[in-house]
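Reopening: Mannose-6-phosphate isomerase still failing for me.
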Amino acid sequence: MQDYIRGYEMIIQQSGLEDHRPWGFFEILSNAPDHKVKRITVYPGQRLSYQRHFKRCEHWYMISGQAVVTLNDQDMALTSGQAVDLPVQAWHRIWNPGLENTVFIEVQTGEYFGEDDIERLEDDYGRV
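Support: Ran it again with your exact input. Result attached.
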């Protein structure tokens, strides 16, 4: 099984479908004209920028770990099996307050899924 997992990780890395960021990384699981699906890993103590999108909404489904999701200045704690919907233009971020990685699936729907459809209000890594 370990060889299978290592092989899968190598395929993802070589395919360019994995993108590393200061807060963790994401893998693109599906990319089609009407949706995009990512598996996102957030390292302990890290958080994504407080941001919004103009051309897509998102649905986050928690796989493992714990998270605090901020949606329009309201915080909510999420754990495995829980989900949240993020409407178009809603300010949002996710923070991993735990000691283990937080993993969630992000389903994007809308008219455009490019990484440049992001307006950042706050960012821990100087990307505002």
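Residues 17-122 form a domain with the Jelly Rolls fold (CATH 2.60.120.10). If you still see a failure, please send the error message rather than a screenshot.
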